[in-house]
Amino acid sequence: MKNIGLCLLLGVLCGCVRIPPGTEAVTGFEVQRYLGTWYEIARLDHIFERGLTHVSAEYSLKPDGSLRVVNRGFDPKENRWKSVEGRASFVAGPGQGRLRVSFFRPFYGGYNILALDERDYGYALVCGNSRDYLWILARQPTLPKAVLDDLTQQAKALGFNTDALIQVRQGAPATTAAPASESRHK
Fold first, then answer.
1. How far apart are CA 65 and CA 63, in angstroms?
2. Residue 115: left (phi > 0), alpha (psi -120 to 50), or beta?
3. What's the number of domains the chain is made of?
């Protein structure tokens, strides 16, 4: 009986890819334009990235239509780079900015693009399954203050705790260590 309960719990956790109530993912999404490097400008703190600076994500298309995702950040306490590779696939078709992402299979989480620079794909507001996960991303390591303020206001209007946003340090970290791709933890 315990095994059945555990299997059911794992099934619920593994297959649960949600978008927070009252939010909507962008439509008219063009995956080819989203590919490439995105820099984390701000985030709500969570255990997977706690303490990391210089965080970025690289998206590339796999032959099966899914996305390869490589998240990378610098841990100043350990003076080393950490990275993790994952896989993302569309939840509701490629025209909607809703993906399910896994860095540790069989566990998947939601990746919901709530706002996107439609003209240049230069910035994005992204959330996870709940309002506990929020990222402001940009194609450059910095974002104009007016754009950052606008995205922050959009997130606040959607019920996110924007007072808790962490500004992510970008630029060159104070180390000579080369980026490492062997670490599975981010």
1. 6
2. beta
3. 1
Residue 54, domain member (yes or no): yes
Task: Give the position of tokens 């992204």.
Answer: 126
Q: What span, in angstroms and rounded, lies between the C-alpha atoms of 35 and 66?
A: 12
Is residue 45 included in any domain, yes or no? yes
Per-residue model confidence as pLDDT tens digits over 70-114 = 999 999 999 999 999 999 999 988 899 999 999 887 888 999 999
Domain that holds residue 15: 2-167
**48 φψ region: left (φ > 0), alpha (ψ -120 to 50), beta (else):** alpha
Q: Please tell me the pTM assigned to this model.
A: 0.84
Q: Is residue 177 part of a domain?
A: no
Burial degree of 26 (CB within 10 A; 0-12, 13-18, 19+): middle
